[in-house]
Structures are given as structure tokens and as C-alpha cells.
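Shapes recur. One chain:

:::
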Amino acid sequence: MSFHGQPNTFVSEVHLKISNLTKSVQFYTDIIGLQILSRSEKLASLTADGVNTLVVLEEIDNAIANTGRNTGLYHIALLLPNRPQLANTLYHLLETRYPLQGASDHLVSEAIYLADPDGNGIEIYADRPEETWKKYDGTIEMATNPLNAEDLLAQRDTESFVSLPPETIMGHIHLQVSSIKESEEFYQALGFYAVNRYGLQALFISTGGYHHHIGLNTWNSAGASAPSENEVGLKTFTVKFPNEEARNLAINNLKTSGAEIRQKENQISTFDPSKNLILLAI
């Protein structure tokens, strides 16, 4: 998991707007296997290791359903440390009978897909060893093939599933955006570069040679506007820089490109061209 630490820049935390905190907390703890780090009347922070927040859930007033046609979240992606842990998680999900939306072999990783009670997309995945990735002139080969679930489940250990392993991290975030071109220019200013693209409709970007820290697509959102404030979905996500110097460089690049930078106390934030709110942390 060296792609999610020094000297790389990566996504560390995602803040979601949801309609019912009690219902969502139960889902993320019982079904997904995260733990509560802190909780108030309208807000809950969830963790895998008891220290670092991965997901923040915020119950909003007068919540309305996500249409899926605006910009915002496509899915969050929780990265497990190895294949046996993914097998344990898949077996647990099958036991719960919670509906899965898909299961794929991406060559660089194996992934399970589902959605929370508000329809926020979730990927749970494990990477294949980097030495097995096929790289060509700065690109990394990826695909969406059917997952060999039988072979994966054969890697399961005999222990009962209690929670996600403490090594679980936020592997990446996948966003719906209005324009791939504008998004690519913006995220380059943050230090992310293309490693794979699918025409003009999808782009995968990273730092340090990872297969992607951020996915971008316009499959349902080309030219779309941002969702309303009371629509469930993405509120913010946090990009973590390796040091102050790297963050300052990104901020200067963003200012040069005309992006808005906000600072409130110790929190610095910006909006991408699709109005996704990003916290810039170190």
C-alpha cells in the first residue's frame, strides 16, 4: 500500500450526505464492516483501524434522492490489504444476502460493488501485486472482466467475519464529472496524471504510478450541473499531500489556473470544474 503514503498524493477520506444516520450507520458497520470512531446526532465518523477516519456520514434535512444524472459521486472504493481479506468480505456479503451490484476483475485488482441505503456507490477491492500490472508508455492496462468468485472464495480463511481489517484504506474515489478535458486539466494542477483513459468518457488518474487514485467519467453526467444541497451523495473528499511544500505547489497551480481556493481556520478547500468540493490536507 505504498501508493497511499509518502511521497504520493492520494484520497484519504470521503464525506457523504445521507438521509437517515441510524440506518446508514447500521449498514456501514454491520454490512460493510467499518467501526464507529465518533458519533453525534447528525454526524458519524467511520474507521477501520480505530484511528483514521475513512468515511463521514452526515444526515441532512429534507434529503432528496440522488438522480444519478448530476456531477458528484460515482463510488467510493475501500482497499483491502490482500486477496484472502477480499474473499472473507465477499463471503460475508453473500451470507448477509445484501444485494450486490457487480463483481469484476480489473486485471490490476479484483472488486465487489454495492450501494448504501441512499444509493451511494461502494467498491470494495484488493490489488493484485504491482509486478503483475501491464504497463505501456505511462499507461496501465485495465479491464472490466467477470470476477472468478469461486476462485476468490477459495482463498477465504476459516475465521468468521467481524469487521474490515484495520489495514483497510480509502483506495480511490470515482467521480461523475461534466467534462473530462476540464477535469484532467484541474487534477493535473493537483499533481494527478492520466494512467488510463477510455475515449472522451472516462479517465483514471494517479500519483506515483498507481492504477488510479481518482476515476472520472461522464457516462451519466456529460455537461451536467452539480446536485442540489439537499440531494444525498458526496459532500467533500480529502486529498492528502505528502508535505506542506507539495500542497503549496498545488495551491499555486490552482490559483494560476483560476480555481477558487478557500481557507477557514486550518482547512483549505477548492472546487473542481464540476463543483465537487475537495479538502486539501497534509
